[in-house]
Write a structure and sequence with these properties.
- The complex is a heterodimer of chains A (about 130) and B (about 190).
- By secondary structure, chain A is an alpha+beta fold.
- In chain A, about 40% of the residues lie in helices and about 30% in strands.
- Chain B is an alpha+beta fold and about 190 residues long.
- Chain B has one domain.
- Chain B is about 30% helix and about 40% strand.
- Chain B has 1 helix and 10 strands.
- The longest helix of chain B has about 55 residues.
- The N and C termini of chain B lie far apart (about 100 Å).
- Classes of the chains: A alpha+beta (about 130), B alpha+beta (about 190).
- Chains A and B meet through helix 1 of A and helix 1, strand 9 and strand 10 of B.
Chain lengths: ~130, ~190
């Protein structure tokens, strides 16, 4: 009768290889999880920068809201430097042709894995509103 | 039949050697995975916390009618500045509508014995649906800073900027998230 021979070295190596592949997949999951966390962080910074600008504009007199296209923010916001290549873009235009209502588009853009990401807030400001 | 000859010393050593190399790789992946897990959960917690604090504060500031320079709340006098904020806000009835000429007072301050704790104390009018209470807003504050806009004195401010840094340790380092937001007093 042939004797029982236990586990061969080839079997052991195959088992280890399978285990390693499994662990590497797990590792990949961790890395992409970290990437998503960073994305979420950038997005919440950008959102808060945008809302700062919105609140600044709410407190700016209506007469100072001159029309502009993708120009710089009015007033000073903080946090933009915490985004990779963060850019502020403010568009002020007449709403449906009326100069009594301004349509405000606040954009914050930043770079993430060679792509431009953006947070955009749009609001209307009326001549006789909060600003006066 | 050939006699089974067992395992030679060389074979044993080879196995031990290969296993050692593989185990080292696996344990490195394991240890760093563990570290990243704790680091990332700390980061998520700080982000979550900073967002929560910013939204709780701006929600109250937007509704308020003015910032007070100082005020006594149940025996302690607070002063609006970079670390403390006192707001006067219209009282709300049970349908959450404002009651005319009736005000509640809210102070946000750091616990004197532990500056990581941000507290909110409400002093409500008898007619208000708010109740007198002291709440803990956050226990992860690393830094808080209020700035007052146009003008930059608390009493006349028309807007307040809130900067929050939350910190939490994890995976052998401290993770922080700083968020800055602003709120214009809508009832000024």
């Amino acid at each position: 009768m042939k004797t029982k021979k236990g586990t061969t070295i080839v079997e052991v190596l195959v088992a280890i290889a399978v285990l390693t592949i499994g662990l590497l997949a797990l590792y990949e999951a961790i890395i992409s999880g970290m990437r998503f966390n960073l994305k979420a962080k950038h997005r919440s910074i950008a959102y808060n920068v945008s809302s700062q600008e919105r609140e600044i504009l709410r407190g700016t007199s209506f007469a100072s809201l001159n029309n502009q296209t993708e120009g710089a923010f009015l007033g000073t916001v903080s946090g933009l430097d915490k985004l990779p290549q963060g850019v502020d873009k403010l568009t002020i235009e007449n709403y449906e042709g009326s100069s009594d209502i301004k349509k405000i588009t606040i954009k914050v853009q930043w770079q993430e894995s060679e792509q431009t990401k953006e947070v955009k807030i749009t609001t209307l400001i009326y001549k006789e509103g909060l600003n006066q | 039949m050939k006699k089974s000859r067992g395992v030679t010393l060389v074979e044993t050593l080879t196995i031990i050697f290969i296993l050692a190399i593989i185990m080292e790789t696996i344990s490195t992946i394991f240890v760093s995975g563990w570290k990243y897990y704790h680091r990332e959960s700390a980061l998520i917690q700080t982000q979550d916390n900073a967002k929560f604090v910013i939204s709780s504060l701006t929600k109250e500031i937007i509704q308020s009618s003015s910032v007070l320079g100082n005020r006594n709340f149940s025996g302690t006098t607070y002063t609006s500045g970079t670390q403390e904020l006192i707001i006067k806000t219209p009282s709300l009835d049970n349908d959450k509508n404002p009651i005319e000429n009736t005000f509640d007072y809210i102070v946000f301050y750091l616990e004197p014995t532990d500056s990581h704790i941000l507290k909110e104390e409400i002093e409500a009018n008898a007619a208000s649906s708010r109740t007198n209470q002291t709440k803990t807003v956050s226990t992860m504050i690393n830094n808080i800073s209020f700035t007052y806009l146009t003008p930059d004195t608390p009493e006349n401010a028309t807007a307040v900027t809130v900067s929050i840094t939350s910190a939490q340790g994890g995976g052998g380092e401290v993770q922080t998230t700083t968020l800055v937001s602003a709120a214009k007093l809508r009832n000024k």
